[in-house]
Amino acid sequence: MRNRRAGLGSLLACTAVLAAVTTACGSDSGTSADGKIELTIATFNQFGYEELLKEYEAAHPNIKVSERKTGQAADHHKNLFTKMAAGSGLSDVEGVEEGYLSQVMTRAGQFNNLKEIGPNVDGRWLDWKTKSVTAKGGELIGYGTDIGPLAMCYRKDLLEAGGIPTDEAGIAATFATWDSYFAAGKQYAEKTGKAWFDSAAQIFNPMHNQAELGYFDKDDKLVIDSNGDKAIWGKVTAAVAQGQSAKLKAWTPEWETGFRESAFATKTCPAWLLGNIEKNSGPEHKGKWVVTGSFPDGGGNWGGSFLTVPKQSKHPKEAAELAAWLTAPEQQIKAFKAKNTFPSQLEALDNPELTESTNEYFGQQVGKLYAEQAKKVDVAQYKGPKDGQIQDDIVGPALLSVEQGTNADEAWKKVVEDAQKATK
């Protein structure tokens, strides 16, 4: 959905976009010819489970586990929802990425309540991580895997060229609020004639994600025209008009080239993005990018996944035990070391193997920094049934149209109208 992941660079260089795949589980009976219980787990991109599943099988000789991987989250979730509608074909454990979680939560009845069938793992996760996957009736639908705590990345040399102070106090002041961020961007654009950030959508989304409500209230009523997004829209599009946006759509070849060509000076960067920055910027810019925990208006989260156990599973108890084991702090640290998926478990966030890890490209202990950012988040944003569709298919394209010359007010009217049509 949000085409993310490439991780934390060097030690933190490939975060995961986690969870999902497409095939049916094991044999029709869920038991192999030699009597072993067969479980399948569906994941996407990199969860870091390859060696962990071997370890689990060694400790559970009566269990055989097959991991089915899909390259992209969008493909996995399309498959997931198709098989949910069909009533068959799901794996015993299905990964769900947070951008698709709202669609799963509206179908919570198709998933097992892990509080009932799984081991007691209360208190394992950051509170907001658990709340986001808890249904209105209190059912726990999934176990948390990774997260995407937000920080800000900036090119120190470019800020200095634009007259933006880069000492600790100066950076804290520049990134204190969105107003101070855009004020600095205006100064930078006027002085250098270059862009402050990569694209409007990459700024709007983190700003939107900081609110308690997404595009819907808790009764699943569309509130895009009254939840504060219009004010965010105004700030972002005003910055576009001032030349602060490089107008580079994320994940395109032009966007990737923009890093190497120093097309923008700052980048909102969840933990999983650091690997992209390193890859796209190239070795010639090693040491020029800096990560700061000073994030406008306090930070937030962008990304992460969960492991669920569909009611289609023939072995739900064993599937829940596998999912619980994979999401234990010990295993999540191993996954972090394997693929740099940033953990959501409280014990893992305090583990020296994470907090003392250094990203060579940035020259910083980014594990400690992002662990602190994760602990700053105190609320899981409520997302309605079509939250992801509105963000990806309506708001994002509309912001791009503004960058290409569409009047911002007219584009906003269309956003509201299209969102209303999509939810009828």
TrEMBL record:
Swiss-Prot/TrEMBL keywords: Signal
Signal peptide (from-to): 1-19
Domain of life: Bacteria
Any Pfam family matching the protein: SBP_bac_8
InterPro entries registered for this protein in UniProt: Bact_solute-bd_prot1, SBP
The name this protein goes by in its record: Extracellular solute-binding protein family 1
